[in-house]
Amino acid sequence: MKKIGYGIGAFFAAILLIVIIALVFAGSFITPSFLVKQIESAINVRAHVESVNISLFNVLSGIEIEGIILAPRDEVANKGIPLDQRKSKPKGLIQLGKAEVKISFLALLTKTLKVNKIVLKKPEISLTMNEDGGNNLTSLFKTPKIVDGEKNPALSQEALAEKKAAEEEEAKEKASAPPSGPFSIKDIPIAIKMGLVGIQEGTIQVFMRKTGQQIQIQKLDLELKDIDIDGSDLNSHNNVNVNFDADVTIIGRNKKEAAKFILETEGKVTPFVVKTGLVNPKVIYEVTMKEDSFVSGFAAFDAIAGELPALNQAGLKLDKLKEKAELKKDVSFQVEYSNGKVTFLDEPTFPTKNYDLQITKGSYIITTTNYHEMKMGMLYDEDESKKSLASVDEKIKQATKGQGDPKALRNKIVGNLVKDERLFIPFRTYGDIRNPSVELGVGLGTLTDLIGGAVKEVIKGKAGDALKKIPGAGDALKGLGF
């Protein structure tokens, strides 16, 4: 028995010795120059790496790479000039302050892939979205045509023919093999445990050529924590904690800030369906929109403020909707994400100085296409509501030539637009969120039709009693042809 124990001990000692020797050897050739050469041989970029740290005492846990830059390919990369002979750093479209990877190699012996940390620190990405849907980063990840000053051997006729033959052979094997179902985590023979995978202090600049808009994502922290997945026991091991924090600023074609959203998001995600092991199509997040987030010049609000004829005809003045509206306090709400679609699971209210905005449960945005359909309610500022309703009263006075009680008639006309002494406007916005279609949630006709319809409703009820409560209403009716 002791011999067996000694044998097992010797086996583990040998494995450990091999790992240490391998990593010590790796430290001698995994240098910035080595990594730059490998990157530039594989993809169509000019690369830069500042330093690589493989410590013997860290060796069983990982590696650190600092100062990674990926820039458009140039002659320096084409010629394969050694890193230490290059005169300057390139200006990169993708820059990483530091990449940390820490893996437990010993855990592999127990059929567990244990990653203690994979973190990209201070990444900076400059992305341009073209009108055809393409972007400026796509070309970076193509196979380079020239490597070390010569045509890339991977693109030679022989290499391409060999690659095509291998792909055809693989296709034949797949065709002859029994049909396979979708990916299931139950087919993976090892458990997966990860401490932290994510991005810290990231910055992403996105320029939209079609609209001229810029989207700036700053202070980006994306963390996947406490990842615990075991396909053989999904009831107990099927968890990922997600945190997403960012400041998202939208800058319009006029170079002015149109909106800023300060977001804190967290969720406990069940990544796989327990019964089948298939990827869970739905994820629920708890989102907090932080105080000082704001919207200015939102197209749907502009339409409500002055471009909907019905509101103008009724005399409603809603100019405050065009002004910058800052969130007065933090607002938390739940959303569901599924295949690019974000759906509101409750009805949050966002209080601002000029109005309170309520979003109806079930409203959604499809992030991949910008299509949206949202039902909302706008509760206008109290003082501004009074001014707007006074404008309606003035319209009624003009139409009735001063006869009757304008407030009483106004309540019959636009009473369903008043809530808690404030103007309340339900509306629906849909289509492309950058140029939405907007519909009021209540029907409004011309002012004369409104007054006539309101009085007709009064007559259909208790005409005598109702009209007595509205001084001068009888004379007003005569003036309107009743």
TrEMBL record:
Segments forming domain AsmA: 1-269
GO cellular component assignments: plasma membrane
One protein family per Pfam: AsmA
UniProt-annotated stretches for the region Disordered: 162-181
Biased composition (Basic and acidic residues): 162-175
Domain of life of the native organism: Bacteria
Residue ranges of the TM segments: none
Swiss-Prot/TrEMBL GO biological process terms: regulation of protein targeting to membrane
InterPro entries tied to this protein: AsmA, AsmA-related
Name of this chain's protein: AsmA family protein
Species for this entry: Leptospira noumeaensis
